Amino acid sequence: MNKNIEVIHELNLDVIPNNCISRYWLELVEDGMGVPIKIPVIVAKGKETGKVVGITAAVHGNELNGIPVIQRLFNEIDINELKGTIVGIPVLNTPSFLRKKRRFLDGVDLNHIMPGKEHGTVSQVYAWRIVNKVIKHFNYLLDLHTASNGRVNSYYIRADMSDEMVRKMALLQNAQIIVHNPPSDGTLRGTAGELDIPAITLEVGNPNLFQKGMIRDGLTGIHNLLGHIGVTDSEVEEISDETLICKKSYWLYCDKGGLLTVHPSVTDIVEKDQIIATLRNIFGDKIEEYSAPERGVVIGKSVSPVNQAGGRILHLGILQ
User: Fold this and answer.
1) Which residues, listed in sequence order, are joined to residue 26 by a DSSP beta bridge?
2) pTM
3) 109-155 confidence digits (pLDDT tens)
């Protein structure tokens, strides 16, 4: 099947045929033997011109839930009713996806160095070509992520809530939590914002696996956005009044090493001075208890018992 998929060097939406769904391999860079490294691209282009919505996943190679979200979306599209174009990139970071690793080949987190550099390091060049060969063609961007190894996440959104369109995009996802994040932070979402492309990050669950509930929730939010901006005729579900909006968030860290138990669950509200974690040594003795520095909601948390000094405890969102 892959043999019949066209290989392209640029994403030129003008030459892609209307009223069909097309698949491509887009060449980004070459490896050490001069063999092209390619990313998969799916383009649904309606009969009528309109907005271009980009949906990306796996900028971290071990964050997989976004892949079936994109696959299912394109299976559900009615091309005859599409007004505009939807571009899906199921895997942005091909080398790390194949290695089942979060970081790029040189050990760098791609989502910390966007927009990269045209003439830079291995990771900088790869990031620069993602932005310039793919992202610049979009009018809207939804970037799908999950938690990292040893941690679990709620279904939450990162968005610049000071931007009216971005705020609406975030609310349409009907997520459990929304965290306000300004652009210019080295992320793909932040870089899109700097290019005046409204963008949000969807944190859809946990790493290295497919979670049916999270996939379903992520898909519903995307359909909501597509219907809202008129790209599809999807009925927009009523925006949930249960979504918690945070003005900021931050991680809490251990100052000692040992075996960590984090007590609250994701989405739990914790109060100031509430005990949130217990640390024991290898003999089972309690050596430290950690408490919440202020009231907030648990966005994500560590589930790996073995924790060195400086290890993460939980991701605390501070409510508006």
Assistant:
1) 8, 39
2) 0.91
3) 999 999 999 999 999 999 999 999 999 999 999 999 986 667 788 88
Give the pLDDT score at 310.
95
Question: Residue 230: which of 52, 89, 88 has the closest Cα?
Answer: 52
Domain termination site, one of 199, 228, 257: 228
DSSP per-residue letters across 183-201: S-SSSHHHHHHHTT--EEE
Peptide bond into 115 cis (omega under 30): yes
Write out the H or E segment, with its range, that includes residue 248: strand 244-253
pLDDT of residue 147: 62
Pairing state of beta strands 151-153 and 269-270? unpaired
Contact 113, 124 (CB under 8 A): yes
CB 36, CB 59: distance < 8 Å: no
150 within some domain: yes
Full residue range of the structural domain in which residue 307 is found: 248-319
Summarised one tens digit per residue, pLDDT across range 211-252 is 555 556 678 889 999 999 999 988 888 777 789 999 999 999
Torsional class of 310: left (φ above 0), alpha (ψ -120 to 50), beta (otherwise): left
Tokens 């560590």 — which residue?
302
